[in-house]
Amino acid sequence: MPIVEVVDLFKRYGDVPAVDHIGFVVESGEVFGILGPNGAGKTTTLEIMEGLRRPDGGRAVVDGVDVQHHPREVRSRIGMQLQQAGFFERLTVDETLQLFAAFHRRALPVSDVIHRLQLDEKRRARVDTLSGGQLQRLSVAVALINDPRIVFLDEPTTGLDPQARRALWEVIGSFRREGRTVILTTHYMEVIRTHAPGTTVSVLLGGGQVRFDVLPGVQTVQQANGEVILLTSDPLGTVHALMELNRSGEAIFQQLRVEEATLEDVFLQLTGRRLRE
Ligand SMILES: Nc1ncnc2c1ncn2[C@@H]1O[C@H](COP(=O)(O)OP(=O)(O)OP(=O)(O)O)[C@@H](O)[C@H]1O
Ligand SMILES: [Mg+2]
């Protein structure tokens, strides 16, 4: 049974549809990513699932509870990290987590949560003295404090340097190993790269006319300044066909590179847009 079910969800702000009839299912124990450009409606979708915003249509069921009818019940079962977390500047890290712990019927030991998010050194530091990355980790700590089965994270890795980002992906991975379900939005999708279907084959076209879209396995073709990037489900077949074209003189390729597709490639394939567009 899915732990989250979203059906035909719709939300508009004035005339602007922010969430346009979307639906998806999240299985228990899954790390589920919501990917989209700025303004796509990711935060709005999350906030509806968290019981913080009312949809104009459709429904969301979280852990068997209809969010629209029982938002408080849902909020007691989930952990949430908000994109714009507001903390009391004059409280310390420790006090902040104590405060959030007090909001809940049950809570993990604050020191454990501090340790997991690698904030031990900042335990007694005031929130207004934290760096951006430390604040970000504090907001994830808040999402964990009530020991939730489902954790919602809105852009948890934004503003983190690569090392801190990897560390946070580790933490998110550990949530999953503990049996929690994680629903997150992010632009940094390298962690999901391993799940992204396909491979990219890139060539520098030195001459000739080629219809790349008919080559074996090719799903999308991006072409700019002589560089051609092919997203393919059959990298060997694609490379073989390219070699054949090169050999027969139909085309001249100056470079060839084979890489695992990033989620950016997959996103482009699905939407025809780059992430930042
Ligand atoms: N409270 C609001 N009132 C009016 N419009 C809003 C409000 N909140 C969001 N919007 C609009 O709804 C759309 C979706 O916004 P949302 O914050 O859900 O996007 P997002 O995908 O989370 O973007 P980002 O990647 O920048 O965080 C945007 O066009 C935004 O301007
Ligand atoms: Mg957002």
From TrEMBL:
Residues 4-231 form the ABC transporter domain. Gene3D superfamilies: P-loop containing nucleotide triphosphate hydrolases. It comes from the Bacteria. GO terms for molecular function: ATP binding; ATP hydrolysis activity. PROSITE patterns: ABC_TRANSPORTER_1 (PS00211), ABC_TRANSPORTER_2 (PS50893). The keyword Transport applies. It holds the Pfam family ABC_tran. CDD domains: ABC_DR_subfamily_A (cd03230). SUPFAM superfamilies: P-loop containing nucleoside triphosphate hydrolases. InterPro entries: AAA+_ATPase, ABC_transporter-like_ATP-bd, ABC_transporter-like_CS, ABC_transporter_ATP-binding, P-loop_NTPase. Belongs to the ABC transporter superfamily. This is ABC transporter ATP-binding protein. It comes from Candidatus Segetimicrobium genomatis.
